[in-house]
Amino acid sequence: MQSTPESRDATTESTDAFFGLLAGLYVAALVVPAVTLGLAVGVTTDAAALFFAVLGTTVGVTAAVGWVARDESLAVRLGSTRWVWLAPIVGFGFGAALMFGSIGGGVGSSASVGVAMLGMLAGAAVGTGLAVAAQNRHVKAVLADAEESARFRARGPERDRRITNWAVVVLMGGGMIGLLVSFATEYGSLQWLFNLLVPLGAGLIGATTERTFAVTDAGLLVAMPVHKRIVSWSAFDSYSVTDDALVLHRAGWSARGLRDVRRDLDEIEDLDGVTAALDEHLPRR
After folding, report:
1. Which pTM was predicted?
2. Strands of the 245-250 sheet, one edge to the other
């Protein structure tokens, strides 16, 4: 029976203080803006009182959650599911609340926007770090007893790189222009949308950059300098070699193959060795 990341024993009794700190900071990033807005609307707008409330809440939440989350098995379990990538998105609930007018009142519009933006940015930044750390720990646990049969490094094919570059220009350029227009007109309520376009475009920059791939009996390892993930072989239905790319085809629906793994054929040094290793896990088209 073929091994998968889910079927292996990836539990551990070790503790991970750094991951606990990340988890604590993440929860604090979500709780503190909500507490601040609640106090400002219903209790006081005094700056000193709000400062100490923010400080106390941050320290308390970070310490309490961090102590519980330092169990390394929690990180491994979180990293085993794609749902961990919801973490950077949750904070954008503050932006949705602003858009629908559910926060504000006694805080004042500018302060409401500032606090909500802080929650969005902090939640996205720390949430991304949390998701990356969890997946790295899951990969380390899964590969502890896995057998590797091939490894290669390659970028996306040239055509993919060109299309990605254009998408980055359109998204980041459109977002920046939209921000400038929203500041100069009465459409300031759409600033949150343009704030999303810029990081979305920036996130595409690395989509076709060089990555390390390893064919293992646990799945396909996809490694970048700060982030690793492992994809079960059941997530693919086949692979193929085209004129310019090695393509691992994802199982299920994929719009124009956007979910497929595509790497530049010219950058794979031992193509025969890689395809021989892939033959052990996937049929070739």
Report:
1. 0.75
2. 236-241, 245-250, 261-264
